[in-house]
From TrEMBL:
<protein>
    <submittedName>
        <fullName>8-amino-7-oxononanoate synthase</fullName>
    </submittedName>
</protein>
<dbReference type="GO" id="GO:0030170">
    <property type="term" value="F:pyridoxal phosphate binding"/>
</dbReference>
<dbReference type="InterPro" id="IPR015422">
    <property type="entry name" value="PyrdxlP-dep_Trfase_small"/>
</dbReference>
<dbReference type="InterPro" id="IPR050087">
    <property type="entry name" value="AON_synthase_class-II"/>
</dbReference>
<feature type="domain" description="Aminotransferase class I/classII large">
    <location>
        <begin position="67"/>
        <end position="405"/>
    </location>
</feature>
<dbReference type="Pfam" id="PF00155">
    <property type="entry name" value="Aminotran_1_2"/>
</dbReference>
<dbReference type="GO" id="GO:0016740">
    <property type="term" value="F:transferase activity"/>
</dbReference>
<keyword id="KW-0663">Pyridoxal phosphate</keyword>
<keyword id="KW-0808">Transferase</keyword>
<dbReference type="InterPro" id="IPR004839">
    <property type="entry name" value="Aminotransferase_I/II_large"/>
</dbReference>
<comment type="similarity">
    <text>Belongs to the class-II pyridoxal-phosphate-dependent aminotransferase family.</text>
</comment>
<dbReference type="InterPro" id="IPR015424">
    <property type="entry name" value="PyrdxlP-dep_Trfase"/>
</dbReference>
<dbReference type="InterPro" id="IPR001917">
    <property type="entry name" value="Aminotrans_II_pyridoxalP_BS"/>
</dbReference>
<dbReference type="InterPro" id="IPR015421">
    <property type="entry name" value="PyrdxlP-dep_Trfase_major"/>
</dbReference>
Amino acid sequence: MSDSSAHPESGPDTVAATGQLTGILRRIADFGASVEGMFGEGDHPAFIQIDRLDGPVHAVIDGRKTTLFGTNSYLGLNFDPRCIAASEEALRKWGTGSTASRVASGNQNGHVVLERTIADFYGRPDAIVFSTGFMANLGTICGLASQGDLILYDSHSHASIIDACRASGATFKPFRHNDPADLDRLLTEATVPASRILVVMEGLYSVWGDVGAVKDLATVAKRHGALVLVDEAHGMGLYGEGGRGVTEAQGADHLVDVIVGTFSKSVGVIGGFCVTSHPALQPLRFLARAYLYTASLPPAVVASARTAIGIIKTDTALRAELWRKAERFCRSVQALGYQLCAEPGPVGSIRMRGKAQGLDMWRSLLARGIYVNLLIPPATPGGKVLLRFSVSAAHTDEDIDTFLGVLSDLTKVAQIA
Ligand code: PMP
């Protein structure tokens, strides 16, 4: 990357200054230096700047046309003309921002209608909209569980789930990833009544790209009498006939008390939500501090989210198109000799042998106009170095062929697979 302004704190002056710092400032400066040093000379995965977008997955980076294989725009709806038109109209009618919390002047017609849209989409009576997916987990989990309760969560859970557990005041313990027997053990050993236990899992785990064992885990949780929450952030729009996620695809709706999701992936905007069928959980919005004490979503975002959910609900052809492309991509990557972390799907990771190989491959792909995400420990479960990809319905078949061609060339040159 040529633009040194992306590293405003780097350079010899900072290094010299770091040595004179103490306490909090020293700790943060040392951490900053370690992040910068993590990848040595050359492009740093955390500082890649997209200079222009030509649609959901086509960009210009450093003057080079680049195809994005690392976004969460699985359905390309962030550039859908219907979503853009809805946003534009709301922007003109309602202005740029709500400027207030839902409970203090920020509760507009659009927010209420969006909550109805999500509740209908999930076939549940009640929905709460949050300003991000992270806050949806934070607000919902902290609203549900508090001191004296126990949260059991899948060990591969997203940071927002873990932070929510920490902030809730409840006791929390991980169960082994996708392991109903381990969950059963923890539920059996629990010293609080099952009615005070919340079991948390995801529908689709987006680092490995593996599907959650939602039905099996929820069955165990329900046998004990615990509450079940599933985060469908990545599953929504990808799984299930109605696009509701892995819970729907596994026929586990009746076992799940609360579903949390986000608008920042298939829906193509930003925001989050939770849905529930428990009438007793209606007061949740007044317990969720991440709902109460922050501004509500901008009207333009609300309008496009509503339009996008309508498309996800009805456009099954778009979902089928995504799966066709994702499966072809994954099978071809496997045919080149690479190991994926999970069954083929729209999001997943290619295993690298170590950091040097991962970094080399990531930089070589970027230099040839292919942008994937490089993940290294401690950000990866199992301590693996991974090239994380996502396939979008917006990729053309040529985009996929180009990626595969580049990967094949690099594999031959470097004997990488
Ligand atoms: N849950 C999961 C499983 C996620 O992967 C993410 C984001 N990557 C979130 C929640 C947070 O969503 P958002 O980015 O919309 O805040």
